[in-house]
Write a structure and sequence with these properties.
Helices cover 0% and strands 37% of the residues. It is built from no helices and five strands. Strand 3 and strand 4 (35-41) form a beta hairpin.
Length: 62
């Protein structure tokens, strides 16, 4: 089961082929290989990377 690396929540929705959204803390995640890329959604709809806030281990898929 996919968990949010930010809030550790399980309330994750699938919004695309490899894209997911955490309904608890409102961040978007993209699966790339065996790793998550984490993004914040800005007010204009663009995405800002949050990858630098998490270690590689925190972004690894189980």
């Amino acid at each position: 089961m996919l968990r949010c690396p930010n809030c550790n929540g399980k309330d994750i929705g699938k919004i695309g082929t490899q894209d997911y959204f955490c309904w608890t803390c409102c961040i978007e995640m993209t699966v790339s290989g065996n790793e998550l890329m984490v993004h914040q959604i800005e007010s204009d709809g663009s995405l800002s990377s949050l990858d630098d806030l998490f270690t590689k281990e925190q972004r690894q898929l189980p």
